Amino acid sequence: MPAPAGYPVRVRGDLDPALSRWLWIVKWILAVPHYIVLFFLHIGYAVVTVIAFFAILFTGRYPRALFDYSVGVVRWTWRVSYYAWTPAGTDKYPPFSLANDDDYPADLDVDYPPTLHRGLVLVKWWLLAIPHYLIIGAMTGAAWVVDYDDAGSAASAMGIPLIGVLTFVALVGLLFVARYSQGLFDFVMGVNRWMLRVQVYASLLRDEYPPFRLDQGARDAVPPPVDTEKPAA
Q: Where do the structural domains in the chain lie, given as residue ranges?
């Protein structure tokens, strides 16, 4: 199912052309202040989503102030992930802000819906989104590494997120050749874009069903301009 032109969730992640070879090793530590703030923001995000559930159920609207807060939390989380985790595509420290920032390499925007389907709110976040959860789980789930002991009679296993493996491979390449693989970056961006679209849908922020498509690259595709010129008679 292709995404319609002008899909209301837009995810941006511009790859820094001058990434440090080694800074990615410590970015996750540098981002600790953000983790602390996001912990409390996500508590509010959960509470706001519950309030919005009932607001949509009875009025068909997501209160605008609550909508802006929820989108801001998703946006902030995406910026921190883009910096410190996946795809780790910039060395610029994320701002402590819920608002849009055109100067930061990563951003997210969601169009505010004037109305939302009152009945759909009962099922879209769990039932209708199940196919997406399964696909995202396959793309971001754990790859199991088995380690046998010397006797060969016992084994231990460790789960490694596949998206983390791909990011790690790209960053190791950056360490040795001073270049981030464009192909890996585009793919990881596509996975993140898919996840964020599903998150927005499951968080009740939009009714448009997320497309089953891996839209790769730094930015969403721009819809072609509408030709308003009338043909000559």
A: 9-139+180-202
